[in-house]
Amino acid sequence: MNTSSLFIVLVALVTITAAVDNGLGLTPQMGWNSWNYFACNINETIIMEMAQAMVSSGMAAAGYQYINIDDCWAYSRDKNTHVIQADPKTFPHGIAYVADYVHSLGLKLGIYTDAGTETCAGRPGSYGYEEIDAQTYASWGIDYLKEDWCHTSKDVPLERYAVMSKSLNQTGRPIFFSLCDWGTDNPWEWGPTVGNSFRTTGDIKDNWDSFMNNLMLQVPITSYSMIGGWNDPDMLEVGNGGMTNTEYISHFSLWSIMSSPLIAGNDLRNMDAQTLAILTASEVIAVNQDQLGRQGALVRSINGGLQQIWGRMLADGSRAVVLFNSDTATSDIQLLWSDIWLMSGQSMNVRDLWARQELGVYTGSYMAINIPAHGSVMLRVY
Ligand code: GLA
User: Fold this and answer.
1) Which of 127, 160, 204, 242 is least surrounded by CB atoms within 10 angstroms?
2) How many CA atoms lie within 13 A of 336 on its CB side?
3) Active-site option among 71, 133, 148, 232
4) CA of 329 to the centre of ligand 1 (A)
5) How far is CA 56 from the centre of its chain?
6) Residue 20: its pLDDT value, please?
7) What is the Å distance from ligand 1's center to 169 Cα?
8) What is the Cα 95 distance to its own chain's centre?
9) Which domains are seen in the chain, by residue range?
10) Residue 9 reports pLDDT greater than 80
11) 4-13, 199-208, 368-377: which has the minimum mean pLDDT?
12) Active site residue 148
């Protein structure tokens, strides 16, 4: 092992031991969640069809693994045992039945609850029932839990999430724990001690301003993310129709370089070819899933941020770069080697990760020409 690989292994070990001790989230989670497209209008058929589509579309082969049921599956608690019951109208066979089906396809099932007394949609929350809920989820075969923050009154997020975190660990079943307090109380400072990812913003909407807002909120906190505990600027809107494909390419490029969870939020049963191509771009996903787990950062802003250069170190020593043109007009962007921790005299290979094409060998800088309005170029420099 050479010195730089040894250094990488040591960094990884230190960061792993700092995170919640459930062995999960060694790379950002990849999957699908029902909320962005279906909101409350879900049922077991939709969830099972989505699992099927994840496999048949090629998304599973590209690395997507979790099928996550969001709000509105829970109905009531049994009066005597306090065990949570799924909505009998929409999940008549119960959640274990859905889990068995999802597992039979080689996928994992996620579920949703709330740290307060009720979920955001008014279904029963887990407050005071964390232990029994964790046991119930484990008995159903659940692999992932998202815990929301509605109806929590004066509770402290770290304290409440710690109760569920401990309860999940006590089940003995590995359950990925996704915190969703929308950035309340700076979860990037304490989130990794209790969960595997933590929302850093309010809800994303399927439009440019919402995407930009969530992106810019990440700028000051990109150094907090770590292996096992990822910053989560919310789920993907790719394919939902409110943005152009050029904009979705920027969304996916930036979420990838930021080690954000890649949780698709579109109808996987009805995707056009372009949507599928974005969601399964293998060289872009490889950056997101890089073993070093170092979140990309905004390394240089040009014209007050209209053009942005995001950079990231990768485990093999190469650099990933997104040249992002947030302007409404076409623009060139020049990447300098000094932006990405290289000496200007170095000659480097440049590869276009969306085109999957070598662009040649450059010394000191690389100029990307004619990046469309709201568009991005994603590169690997090595
Ligand atoms: C909150 C969360 C969303 C979603 C809804 C469900 O708004 O932030 O991601 O889970 O609740 O009601």
Assistant:
1) 242
2) 9
3) 148
4) 34
5) 22
6) 80
7) 24
8) 24
9) 8-288 (3.20.20.70), 297-381 (2.60.40.1180)
10) no
11) 4-13
12) yes
